[in-house]
Design brief:
InterPro entries: HTH_IS21_transposase_type, Integrase_cat-core, RNaseH-like_sf, RNaseH_sf. Belongs to the transposase IS21/IS408/IS1162 family. It is a single chain. This protein has about 425 residues and is α+β, with helices and mostly antiparallel strands. The protein folds into 4 domains: about 40 residues, no CATH class; about 35 residues, no CATH class; about 170 residues, Ribonuclease H-like superfamily/Ribonuclease H (Nucleotidyltransferase, domain 5, 2-Layer Sandwich); about 70 residues, no CATH class. The protein has 12 helices and 14 strands. The chain has a 5-stranded mixed β-sheet with strand order 3-2-1-4-7, with helices on both faces. The longest helix has 16 residues. The protein is rod-shaped.
Length: about 425
């Protein structure tokens, strides 16, 4: 007899008792035992509750709450950590427990854009905050590249987002994937975009050269629409909620080693939420469409320096080198190819290339085609130095034999003789 039935019987018994019925008569009428009838004339039935059973999760709840306070609410991460500590329960009970500590997510529908295998990769940076690495507080950044078709990811960590580090991360990503996609999509990061015009995006000269070297097309998101690269945005979120919530040795090298292992065992090995297939499995179709990177020498991450143009010259290692005067430049950049060669660039293109001149005593190195043409020169092609008075060509002198001068001398002698 359930609790509701007992409660209903209690009120019937109470009513019959008030009417003068005996306990025996009540028991016979309701077809219950005499002790039960007597009991319900005196006390209301109480709902019986079972004692709470222990959960396999109970011994680990203190640890879970500690990890949640540290910012880890990803059940995949917590489940792996609990299994390492001896937890034998399931994942569902863990999710139900952690759900109470989460805030409700706010989602906004965005049209999904799918690409063919090898067609596109997406790139983004993420800020990992200030970390105490090797006794020094440093801000750490994560570089992420995601293949559009397979969703296979690559991630590495640096302490700078400057050009040399950025290009090095790009090369490492291509090597990790074993090839180069046809297009790579970026947002309007300063290392990629120099300026945006009405109908044109002007790339930085360095990155344009890098893209040309590896043979991929650069695509850039429209301003204010970062969700255009939603695949890598999801990867950023995944790295933040999964990898960063795990425990790592506080060193940059350790983070990068852990990241490679995490990519192989977690990020690219488990089924993707959208495709339902592990990225590594889907990548087997994509790698066939990538341009091979084997045989391509690493791009030289060159050193760039600014130089002021003064009277048509720039100063490099205590010597002056000319730049084309007709460009009217006030400032240029030099790109060191190696320790002995450098290129001179304006904002968009290479102007000229020089080799460092080591001649002792020579302080000025100029090229005639860089200097302005002299006005009033006798012949086409006369040039002058920008900082020196020009020198006209010497007039041509007729060449005569010595006999001619001896004859003149004899004539003068006869004329002067008295």
């Amino acid at each position: 007899m359930n609790f509701e039935r007992k409660e209903e019987m209690f009120w019937v018994i109470q009513d019959l008792k008030k009417k003068g019925w005996s306990i025996t008569a009540i028991a016979d009428e309701l077809q219950i035992s005499w002790p039960t009838a007597k009991k319900y004339t005196k006390e209301i039935p109480k709902k019986q509750t079972r004692p709470a059973r222990g959960s396999k999760l109970d011994p680990y709840k203190a640890y879970i709450r500690q990890r949640i306070e540290e910012g880890t609410t990803n059940c995949e991460v917590l489940f792996d950590e609990l299994r390492a500590k001896g937890y034998t329960g399931g994942k569902t009970i863990l999710k139900d427990y952690v759900q109470g500590f989460r805030s409700a997510p706010r989602k906004q529908g965005v049209p999904r854009y799918e690409t063919a295998p090898g067609e596109q990769a997406q790139v983004d940076w993420m800020d990992c905050g200030i970390q105490n690495f090797e006794g020094k507080r440093r801000r750490i950044y994560g570089f992420i590249m995601t293949m559009g078709y397979s969703r296979k990811r690559y991630v590495c960590f640096t302490d700078t987002m400057k050009m040399d580090s950025f290009l090095r991360c790009m090369r490492q990503a291509f090597e990790y994937f074993g090839g180069i996609p046809k297009k790579v999509l970026f947002d309007n990061m300063k290392t990629v975009v120099q300026k945006r015009l009405l109908k044109e995006v002007v790339l930085t000269s360095v990155f344009a050269d890098f893209a040309h070297y590896y043979g991929f097309q650069v695509d850039v998101c429209k301003p204010g629409k970062p969700r255009t690269k939603g695949k890598v945005e999801n990867s950023v979120k995944y790295v933040r909620q999964n990898f960063l919530q795990r425990k790592h040795e506080p060193a940059l090298e350790a983070w990068n080693q852990d990241a490679l292992q995490w990519l192989e065992t977690v990020a690219n090995a488990k089924p993707n939420a959208t495709t339902g297939v592990p990225p590594e499995e889907r990548f087997q179709d994509e790698i066939k469409a990538l341009s091979p990177i084997s045989g391509i020498a690493p791009y030289v991450v060159a050193k760039w320096e600014k130089r002021l143009v003064w009277d048509g010259y720039i100063s490099v290692k205590s010597k002056k080198y000319t730049v084309p005067s007709h460009l009217g430049l006030k400032e240029v950049r030099i790109r060191w190819i190696d320790s002995d060669h450098f290129e001179v660039w304006d904002h968009e293109q290479k102007i000229t290339t020089y080799r460092i001149n080591e001649e002792t005593g020579k302080t000025t190195i100029y090229r005639p085609e860089h200097l302005p043409k002299l006005k009033g020169a006798l012949e086409e092609g006369d040039y002058g130095l920008a900082t020196s008075p020009h020198v006209q060509k010497a007039p041509e002198v007729e060449t005569r034999s010595l006999d001619y001068y001896e004859l003149i001398g004899e004539e003068e002698f006869l004329v002067c003789k008295p």
